[in-house]
Amino acid sequence: MSLPAFVEALLTPAAYPHAVTTPIQLLQTHISYVFLTGDYAYKVKKPADFGFLNFTTLERRLFYCQEELRLNRRLAPDLYLAVVPIVAVGDRYCVAHPQDLPAGAEVIEYAVQMRQFDQSQLFSHLFAANQVTPHLIESLGKELAHFHRCAATSPRISEFGSPRAIAQVINNCHALAAQFVGRCQSPEQYAAIQAFTDDFLSRRQEWFVRRQAGGKIRECHGDLHLNNICLYNGKVQIFDCIEFNEEFRNIDGIYDAAFLLMDLEFRRRGDLANLFLNTYLEWSGDYEGAVLLPLYLCVRAYIRGNVNALALNDPAISGAEKAQIQATAAAYYGAAYRYTQPRQAKLYMMCGLSGAGKSTRGRRLAQAEQAIQIRSDAVRKHLAHLPLDRRSTDFPEVDLYSDAMTEKTYDQLLAYAELLLPQGQTVILDAKYDRVALRQPVIALAKKLHVPLEIHFCSAPPEELHRRLSARQGDIAEATPDLIATQMASFEPFLPEEEPYVRHVCD
């Protein structure tokens, strides 16, 4: 395939104002050329118009290069460096410094200059090598939660989260998918997905309105999957934010997170997906957003099905490649269909003294049951508007452990469970639950909603509790060994009517 003259030129070392590693590599997508030169990568936009993006003029390409730089510096500041002009000087083409154009130069394109990173450090490659660790997933969850709290919002951005706007996006998905019925998905799948999304949107409009009013629609990433995350100098970098379409990036934070959650589940790592979700929810405090996950996970998988299926219309792709693409598209459509199916919710109450292993066991249980684990330590700090990674002693004006704050915390735990359980979400309430008056409302809720309940009473010898609390570091919980005696004395035994729910656990 012939390449434009400037592309051919940028494959030679003379086109760059710095030393390069030869041979210069050229990567192509349907919307860009990427030149790998050693220390730096240069991304040039193709003059394409696909409806959802329009790069047909030089002015547009400059604007979207600047947008790409602005947006990606939020999450990958170490990778995104500058927008630089590509100029023609006579019959030569080269990359120039914006403030030092050669005499007689004509700007013919623009490029986003980036730090080149080792492709083996892409999370998709690390995943294939089984090197995406729980620690990396927790780092991702925390970083994304912080990003969504700080990302820009405005009345205009919030409009993209209106029920009408979301319905339009989903209806576009259905319209696009219709041509692949019988090829990548069955008529039954197509009808079931459409019925599910239509019903969800019609019955839950107030949820979307509340998300708008609560400032949850933000200028997010928009394309958050493992191939757009890497390690650079030991730090997680989330890159390639969508710059070309506001509709795709001005979204609910939980919809942004749902893409990575779906990606991990699609790759059959439900354990990592659950760890990511619980880390993100804990650090964002956005447990209410989890009610939207069935819809948003379905839509994310549906979009990936469409993206893959569209390649079947490309005459340049071989039959063998199309067979693989069709299988992948079918797998995504199948995943979208599974997200429409109702799930049986369960309720777990972790119970016991500080240091007894409630959160550790709760985490294992969450991954086994694909449950949402809600820790009282996180909820308490969110209610007090304190950062999770700071001690309450840093804020002497706040009485974090007053009776009033404790009551408020347990009421909020119960409210989250009452919200999530009817949506088929299994919930783990993780707190001491050391008093009958705190346990009884949870039991009453399980009976009211007709969901199974288990109380996991965690215990350990006093000397082990003391050792654990003395050694605890880097956790959001603040209990210290001097509280053990008081907690033991005040713990109220289980009533006979509670005992059938209790599972005694010694960790």
UniProtKB/TrEMBL annotation:
Protein name stated in the entry: Tll0278 protein
InterPro entries named among the record's database cross-references: Aminoglycoside_PTrfase, Cell-binding_unc_protein, Kinase-like_dom_sf, P-loop_NTPase
Aminoglycoside phosphotransferase domain boundaries: 66-287
PANTHER family in the cross-refs: GLUCONOKINASE, SLR0207 PROTEIN
A family per Pfam: AAA_33
Taxon lineage: Bacteria, Bacillati, Cyanobacteriota, Cyanophyceae, Acaryochloridales
